[in-house]
Amino acid sequence: MARSGSNPDRRVKTAKKRTASSAAWLQRQLNDPYVKRAKQDGYRSRAAYKLLGLDERFTFLRGTKRVVDLGITPGGWSQVVRRANPRAAVVGIDILPTDAIEGVTIFEMDFMDDKAPAALTDTLDGSPDLVLSDMAANTVGHKQTDHLRTMALVEAAAWFAVETLEQGGTFVAKVLAGGTDKELLTLLKQHFRTVKHAKPPASRKGSSEWYVVAQGFKGRRETGEDAEQS
C-alpha cells in the first residue's frame, strides 16, 4: 500500500503477493515527476519526455511529414510527433497491442516479421523523413544476452532506416550502456552526416539506456550504393 498524505517521498509496503522488485518499481513510479507530468499533459507514458528532451537538443521533429515509430506501445512518442506536426503521417508497429491514436496507423505485429517493412512503407505516401525506434528485447536476466538481443533490434531498425529514409532524414533509436556497437556505428556514420549519443533528462540515472541520433541521411547516391549495384 502507498503511504497517504502529501509527502513527496512516498513509500510502498511489500504486500504478500508483491515482490520486492515490483514494490520498488511502484515506488519509483509514485515518486517520478515525469510520470506525474505525463498524466497532466495527456501523454501515455513518461517516455514522451525522452523524445522531447532529445528534440530539444537535436531539433529533428520540426517540419517532419512522414514518420515511422518502431516499438510504438504505449504510444507516447507518436503523441509527441502528432502534437509537433498535426499534419504528419505517422505509422507505428509493436508486437503488443496499442490503443488507437488519431492520425496514426498502427500495426500489431513483430517488426522482425518479413512482411513488416513493406507494411510500414506502403502506408506512407512517400519515404519517411524520420524513423524512431524505442524497441528493446524482453530481458532474460543475463546481461550479455539481453544486450545482444536488444542491439539486434537496433541494427534491424538502422537497416530499415538506411533502406527507406529520404535524403536528409533522421534516425533515432534506443541503445544500451556503452552506446552503439562498432559495426552499427560504422553503418550509421557511412550513411548520416552526424551521429551522436545522448541520455535525455527523462531517462532514469540508474537506467542503462542511451539514445543514438543520426541526422542528415546522405541517400543512396551519395554513399555510392547505386553505382555499386548497377
Automatic annotation (TrEMBL):
It is found in: Cytoplasm. Residues 43-217 form the Ribosomal RNA methyltransferase FtsJ domain. SUPFAM superfamilies: S-adenosyl-L-methionine-dependent methyltransferases (SSF53335). The active site is at 174 (proton acceptor). It is an enzyme of class 2 (transferase). Belongs to the class I-like SAM-binding methyltransferase superfamily. RNA methyltransferase RlmE family. This is Ribosomal RNA large subunit methyltransferase E. It comes from Alteripontixanthobacter maritimus.
